[in-house]
Fold this protein.
Amino acid sequence: MHQIKTRSLVTGCLLSLLSALNVAAEEFNLTSATIADINAAFDSGALNSEMLVKMSLARIDAYDEAGPKLNAVLLINPNALETARALDRERKSQGRRSPLHGIPVVLKDNLDTADMPTTAGSFMLEDSIPPDDAFLVSKLRAAGAIVLAKLNMSEFASGGAMNSLDGPIYNPHDPERTPSGSSGGTGAAIASAYAPVGLGTDTGGSVRGPSSANGIVGLKPTHGLLSRDGIIPLALSFDTAGPMARSVYDVAVSLGVMTGVDLADAATIKSEERFETDYTRFLDADALKGARIGIARDFMEADEEVDWIVEASLQSMRNAGAEIIDVELPEWLLESRGEFYRAIRYREFRSQIEDYLGTLGPDYPKTLAELISKSMTLTSRRDDGITPNPGRWDLMMKEDDSGELTDYEYLAVRDHALPLMRGVIGGLLETEKLDAIVYPTSPTRPERADPDPDPDGAPGGGGSPVILANLTGFPDLIVPAGFTGRGLPVSISFLGPAFSEPRLLALGYAFEQRTGARRLPITTPPLDGELITY
């Protein structure tokens, strides 16, 4: 007690002295700090990477297996602290490699890491060590980022926010609610300030659903802007990784570190001469002034509280000088989007997962049929925590029965329907001279963690518009917009044409600065030692 009082007295005297000298004290707050704030604290000497990693580990220890037991983390990198110390020494002797130097990042467990297992959340890939890092993981490490942890996810990136390897994930704003899938672990971890930046993947909304449900910023980039090399595939026509963070600034920083043409992924050739390495230079708090924003009301009227927050968001944009234009999507497009999605998604997973499984050791399944066969050996929870996941495994049977990549339906959708979707939505943006189309990312508040089945439900064909960005390949930025009366997050999406990330990030940043709608979840409050005054 005497030591605490003495420390408080010294701190008070120091602050008084700074005030008398008219020197403003700076403050670092872990749970609200951007990467710019972290680097400022690094530069001042008040913080280093080792301290930052220890703070992150303390939050994981407090809230993942204890407290609300979010279960967002599958595996902690045992070398994280050692890497942090090495990067601290390097910063002192050579300066920083990039803005991510010494910054902890967390990865969805379908991104390959050569030094840690990559399992896609499945007991069928337990302890699988891939041959090398995913391209994006290599880029992050080269930039000086520290891979802190691999995160829980929907099994093989589809289905509910749970898997057979580690069970369900919970929403930190309300653990009785879902954090959404399939990047639910990333969404919950970033919202709870386990790390400043995380990576998810998105085939049909898997970055954007968890960003919305957990009240954080997320980006589904243009298809081909980020390499998919070393990512366990779900459907390569749609697959992309995407950064998730607590601020638009942090998404912009991390995106610029990861872009670039990758010879191992032909899709990235589309980004040649169109990608940027510093997206922060486009951030503009006045970007909404003079902007033309379309509102897709087709995706409203499902939840009055969500609708109210969207209307308030539109008014905020108007107040900032934006012109809001109602847009209407063709009825045939809305009715067919789910069928188009499934025609591609199911067949591609059936074919493409075999290519990935072929890179693994002999003890692992090599085909989707072998995955299904192995899944049927587990019908009850084991003593080691391995848990059946019938919802995902039933979907595997549908995927296995879906057909071949030579089927006329697949070829027709790939060669004609997808260009048609791009033409219609791209044409709408161009004809109306829109900077973006906005809509509620999820038309309803996050659902219960274990809802009863919906007999009329169909994957990819629900009320949410998110698969439109996958069907077109267009970018979609998610920004927190507000909260329901019971404190559940609501987000708004900014959809733009291919490679319009600079403009979307500018608009999202301007909206974020006006509304400040992000909040730390009530179940994961600040811990002692996370506030530093210097």
Remarks:
- Confidence is low (pLDDT under 50) at residues 1-7, 455-462.
- Residues 2-451+459-533 form a domain with the Amidase signature (AS) enzymes fold (CATH 3.90.1300.10).
- The chain has one domain: 2-451+459-533.
- Residues 331-357 form the longest helix (27 residues).
